[in-house]
Amino acid sequence: MTTRRDALRAWNQPQEPGQTWGESAPQPPSPVDLIPAPQPKKKRGREWEHFNRTYSYFIPRSLQQKAAEVRDAITGIASEIGMTTVDNIATVFATYALHCINQGVLSLETSYDPQRAKITLTWEEVKDGTKQAPSGRPHHHKKQDGKEFYLGYRWPNETHQRLKQLASENRLAIGEVIVVCLQHGLGAYREGRLRLVPQPVTVRQTVNGDWA
């Protein structure tokens, strides 16, 4: 006599190893389970800021007016050119002035003024060029009222060390050297002897997601 097979018997048998009979099969994950958990946001690296720090220089009171004029002129040039910064413009002017010092074109000469009992600066240069109209609109400067005045720019450490060395060699405050160098670069730019050449800057993203 032929025994009838139960069609549901195989269906109800355990399907996974270790699963007992009658136990339900594992359920598939829900859409919510498939959403990845939020990861903590990585902090942006500060390597560039570390190697390109901002240097701040105290400006003697006798040079504060000139320093303010140079600062405003540099700001005006950066705004006029666009896609650059005041730090970049100041670096170019300072680097140019240092080059002129190395070539003997710009000299830092000290003299003693008994009326003010302090060291003053004079400078001279050679080579004439086509004059250029000043950039930026004129600014009205407020009286400092005895407050301390500083100029600060983010430029390479090599530039800072060279300026510091010049100040020490000539027995000058580094703020005086800064003003003279920036004035020299600004004057060369306005007279057409110094031309600012745009250079593309490559911005890349590192493996950890930081921009460099």
What does the model show?
There is one protein chain. The protein is an alpha+beta fold and 212 residues long. It has a domain at 59-190. The protein is 35% helix and 10% strand. The chain contains 6 helices and 4 strands, in the order H-H-E-H-H-E-E-E-H-H. The strands form 2 sheets. The protein has a two-stranded antiparallel sheet. Strands 2-3 form a two-stranded antiparallel sheet. It is elongated, with a radius of gyration of 34 Å. Mean pLDDT is 75; it is low at 111-120, 139-144 and 205-212.
- Mean pLDDT value: 75
- Overall geometry: elongated
Characterize the biggest β-sheet.
2 strands, antiparallel
**What would you call the structural class?**
alpha+beta
Tally of DSSP β-strands:
4
Proportion of residues in extended strands: 5-15%
User: Uncertain regions: pLDDT < 50 for 5+ in a row?
Assistant: 111-120, 139-144, 205-212
Give the radius of gyration: 34 Å
Count of helical segments? 6
End-to-end distance? 85 Å
Topology order in helix (H) and strand (E) letters: HHEHHEEEHH
Q: What is the share of helical residues?
A: 25-40%
Sheet with the most strands: spatial strand order? 1-4
